[in-house]
Amino acid sequence: MSPRAVVILLAMAHPAAAASQAQPRMVDVHLHGLTEPAAYGVCPVSGVLGTARPDGSALCDAPLQPAVSADDLRARTLDAMRRHDMVAVVSSPSPDELAKWVAAAPLRVVPALQMGADDFTPDSLRALVRSGRVAVFGEVMSQYEGLAPADPALDWLFSLAEELDVPVGIHVAGVGAPVPGFRAALADPLLLEPVLIRHPRLRLWIMHAGWPFLEETVTLLRRFPEVYVDVSWINWQAPRGLFHDYLERLVTFGFGQRVMFGTDQVWWPDAVDLAVGAIHAADFLTPQERDDILYANAARFFRLPARP
After folding, report:
1. Element (H, E) at 228
2. Which residues pair with 42 in a beta bridge?
3. CA angle (194, 183, 45) in 5-degree steps
4. Which CATH number among 3.30.70.20, 1.10.10.10, 3.20.20.140, 3.10.450.50 corresponds to the domain 3-301?
5. Which residues pair with 110 in a beta bridge?
6. C-beta separation of 93 from 141 below 8 A
7. CA-CA distance, 1 to 55, in Å (whole number)?
8. What confidence tens digit (pLDDT) does each residue in 218-244 have?
9. Distance between CA 14 and CA 107 in Å, rounded?
10. Max Cα separation, the chain?
11. Rounded to whole angstroms, how far apart are CA atoms 40 and 255?
């Protein structure tokens, strides 16, 4: 992580504010700060995207409604973050939009760049990291471009992240937004194995915990102890029983200390409350396991300080 990101989270640049602010209770490692509003709602705890069937009938009684603008999204999401005493890794394809999030809540936002294989050049990314405007690469959207993680078109990005010691979050899962380029066939987390072999110092986490490919995810976690996962999206949009079963099995396999909380809040700020509630409702978790998922694992992965 860049020095500036650590400054944000340790509040070294804001000693007066830091003195009055308690250590955050949770870290959301997967939250979006986009600029183009969505035109549809989502049905929570259902796995269904959109508000209507082709005939126009409603898919659910109370879909989450999207924010109406980038400003509305930012304000409502930051309100939710403050309510939960949350720091978030906020991902956007726009460095200028990230700057607005950081300016609005400098103690709560770690700026992350959402990108595909050729959205930025190595020089431009290096400059963004060195200036402190970006601290994380992700969400890496290669699956939406029909590219496997080990595709040569992405290798420069992983090389740069390794060189700069920047964490990388990548979408490798069977769920995704309804866009033409998305390829479910690239959802197997084991497709990351060549990347991790080529880049042994890469700090990488798998978004959505590779859902629903549990066995493949577990195999990769056993093979590469430096890899973490987040449980975003599946903790508020997948049926609750399926999410809890998936999470419990990850913990039972012994990876409770490498699971991180995330929301994948895109345009629906109410999803933050649902995602947090899903973790608290997981009664199979011990208090320590719950705290690990909500805070401690992300603190370790992003090299944040442990709570006193």
Report:
1. strand 228-230
2. 49, 64
3. 110
4. 3.20.20.140
5. 89
6. no
7. 48
8. 999 999 999 999 999 999 999 999 999
9. 8
10. 57
11. 35
Encoded amino acid at 65, one letter: Q
Q: List, for residues 157-211, the tens digit of each pLDDT value.
A: 999 999 999 999 999 999 888 788 999 999 999 999 999 999 999 999 999 999 9
Residue 45 and residue 242: Cα distance in Å, rounded? 10
Q: What is the pLDDT of residues 114-138, one digit of tens each?
A: 999 999 999 999 999 999 999 999 9
- Using DSSP's 3-state secondary structure scheme, residue 93 falls into coil
Which of 34, 58, 63 lies closest to 46 in space, CA to CA?
63
The count of C-alpha atoms lying within 13 angstroms of the C-alpha of 232, restricted to the half-sphere facing its C-beta, is 28
Q: pTM for the whole thing?
A: 0.91
Backbone torsions φ then ψ of 222, nearest 5 degrees: -65, -40
What DSSP designation does 52 have? B
- Return d(Cα 49, Cα 46) in angstroms, integer: 9
Asked if 303 and 34 count as a contact pair (C-beta separation under 8 A), the reply is: no
